[in-house]
Automatic annotation (TrEMBL):
<protein>
    <recommendedName>
        <fullName>Enoyl reductase (ER) domain-containing protein</fullName>
    </recommendedName>
</protein>
<dbReference type="InterPro" id="IPR041694">
    <property type="entry name" value="ADH_N_2"/>
</dbReference>
<dbReference type="InterPro" id="IPR013149">
    <property type="entry name" value="ADH-like_C"/>
</dbReference>
<dbReference type="InterPro" id="IPR020843">
    <property type="entry name" value="ER"/>
</dbReference>
<feature type="domain" description="Enoyl reductase (ER)">
    <location>
        <begin position="88"/>
        <end position="335"/>
    </location>
</feature>
<feature type="region of interest" description="Disordered">
    <location>
        <begin position="1"/>
        <end position="20"/>
    </location>
</feature>
<dbReference type="GO" id="GO:0016628">
    <property type="term" value="F:oxidoreductase activity, acting on the CH-CH group of donors, NAD or NADP as acceptor"/>
</dbReference>
<dbReference type="Pfam" id="PF16884">
    <property type="entry name" value="ADH_N_2"/>
</dbReference>
<dbReference type="Pfam" id="PF00107">
    <property type="entry name" value="ADH_zinc_N"/>
</dbReference>
<dbReference type="InterPro" id="IPR011032">
    <property type="entry name" value="GroES-like_sf"/>
</dbReference>
<dbReference type="InterPro" id="IPR036291">
    <property type="entry name" value="NAD(P)-bd_dom_sf"/>
</dbReference>
<dbReference type="InterPro" id="IPR045010">
    <property type="entry name" value="MDR_fam"/>
</dbReference>
<keyword id="KW-0560">Oxidoreductase</keyword>
Length: 339
C-alpha cells in the first residue's frame, strides 16, 4: 500500500520548529504474518513532540533524523492476519504522522466505540485524559471543596483537568490565551472563572480571580505552563497546598536557561508540596482511570473537546505549529487523515 509519512530531516534551529525541519515521504507499507494493516484516520499533535524534535535530555527518546515522527493516532484495520483484531476494528496506537501502518497486536489497542467517538480515545480516554486524571487524583490528591487553578485551561489536558476537579466538587479557576478561550473554559468546561493571561500580569489576574470566586487562596495548582504562571500560583497557595507540575509550555522553545520561581521560600512557610510527574509512569492506574472516565464521558459529565488543526498528511506539521502557537485551538488538537 502506498502511504505518505512525515519525516524529521533537521532538528529545530534556535527555538521554534520550522516547516523545513520535515519532509513528506512516500513509502510502500506491507503487513505480513502476525500483523494488521491500519489506515490511520486521525492523529494527535501534542507539545511534547517539540521536545522529541531536539536532541538531548528529555523524558522520551528524540525522534530519529530521516525517520517518520511518532505519536498517537486512531485508525481502522483494513487487512488482518490477527484473528483477535479483525478487519474493521477501530484501533489506537503510537504510529501517527503517517497514512498507513503495519502493526503487531502488541503495538495497538482495539478501542470501545459504543456511545463514544473514536477520537475520545485520543482525548479524555487517551493519554491526554490520563494525564489530567493522574495530575489531579494521584499527584495533587484533589479533595471536594478545594480551590483549583489550571493553566492552559482551554488545552487538551487543562480542559479535562478542570472538568475532573468540578466533578469532584471543587471551585475552579482557569487561565488561557484569548477571550474566546475564556468563554469556552467557563461555558463549555464549567470553570467558575477564567482569565486571559495577556490582559496584565499573571499575578494580578490570578489574585483578582481568587477574589472573584470568594476563596482565601488555592489548594491545588495544575501547572501546564511554568514560568510566570508558576510563580503567581505559589503566591496564592493556601497552607498544605499541592502543585502538580505537568508541563511548562511557556519555556519549551527557550534557548537559554529560564529563571525559576523567585518565591520558593513560600513553599516552606506554607508547607506546600510541588511534584512533577510523567504520565507514562502511571500505567498501574489506567484500569481505574478508564472505568471512571468512560462513565463520565458517556454520561456527558466530562466532554472531550477537540479542534481539527489540519486535514490530510500535508497539513499535519502546520497543524502542529498551530497547536504550539495556541491560535484558536480549544481542547485536544487533532489532524484528520481521512480522504
Ligand atoms: N507530564 C506529562 O506526562 C504530560 C503528558 C501530556 C502533556 N503534558 C504537558 O501538559 C501540557 C498540556 O498539554 P496539552 O497536550 O493539553 O497541550 P495544550 O495545553 O493544548 O498546549 C497548547 C496550548 O498551550 C498554550 N500556550 C502556548 N504557549 C504558551 C505560553 N507561552 N504561555 C501560556 N500558554 C501557552 C496555548 O494556549 P493559550 O492560547 O491558552 O495560550 C496552546 O493552545 C503541556 O505543557 C504538555 O507538554 C505533560
Amino acid at each position: 500500500m502506498r502511504s505518505r509519512e512525515v519525516h524529521l530531516v533537521r532538528r529545530p534551529q534556535g527555538g521554534a520548529p520550522h516547516p523545513d525541519d520535515v519532509t513528506i515521504e512516500t513509502v510502500e507499507v506491507e503487513a505480513g504474518a502476525g500483523q494488521v494493516l491500519v489506515r490511520n484516520t486521525v492523529m494527535s499533535v501534542e507539545p511534547y513532540m517539540r521536545g522529541r524534535m531536539s536532541e538531548g535530555a528529555s523524558y522520551v527518546e528524540p525522534y530519529q533524523l530521516g525517520a517518520p515522527m511518532e505519536g498517537h493516532a486512531t485508525g481502522v484495520v483494513e487487512w488482518s492476519d490477527v484473528p483477535d483484531v479483525p478487519v474493521g476494528s477501530v484501533v489506537v496506537h503510537q504510529f501517527g504522522w503517517r497514512e498507513y501502518a503495519a502493526l503487531t497486536p502488541d503495538e495497538l489497542e482495539v478501542v470501545d466505540v459504543d456511545g463514544l467517538k473514536p477520537t475520545d480515545h485520543l482525548g479524555a480516554l487517551g493519554q491526554t485524559g490520563l494525564t489530567a486524571w493522574v495530575g489531579m487524583n494521584v499527584i495533587a490528591r484533589v479533595q471536594p471543596g478545594d480551590t483549583v487553578f489550571v493553566s492552559s485551561a482551554a488545552g487538551g489536558v487543562g480542559a479535562i483537568a478542570g472538568q475532573l476537579a468540578k466533578v469532584k466538587g471543587c471551585t475552579t479557576i482557569g487561565s488561557c490565551g484569548s477571550p474566546d478561550k475564556v468563554e469556552a473554559v467557563v461555558k463549555s468546561f464549567g470553570f467558575d472563572t477564567a482569565f486571559d493571561y495577556h490582559d496584565g500580569r499573571v499575578r494580578d489576574l490570578l489574585r483578582d480571580a481568587v477574589e472573584r470566586v470568594g476563596r482565601p487562596g488555592l489548594d491545588v495548582y495544575f501547572d501546564n505552563v511554568g514560568a510566570e504562571h508558576l510563580e503567581a500560583a505559589i503566591r496564592e497557595m493556601n497552607e498544605q497546598g499541592r502543585i502538580a507540575l505537568c508541563g511548562a509550555i511557556a519555556v519549551y522553545n527557550a534557548t537559554e536557561p529560564v529563571p525559576g520561581p523567585r518565591n520558593l521560600l513560600l513553599m516552606i512557610w506554607r508547607r506546600l508540596r510541588m511534584e512533577g510527574f510523567i504520565v507514562g509512569d502511571h500505567d498501574d492506574v489506567r484500569p481505574q482511570f478508564l472505568a471512571e472516565m468512560t462513565e463520565l464521558v458517556r454520561r456527558g459529565e466530562v466532554t472531550s473537546p477537540e479542534t481539527y488543526v489540519g486535514h490530510g498528511i500535508d497539513e499535519a506539521f502546520s497543524g502542529f505549529l498551530t497547536l504550539l502557537e495556541g491560535r484558536a485551538v480549544v481542547g485536544k488538537a487533532l489532524v484528520s487523515l481521512q480522504d
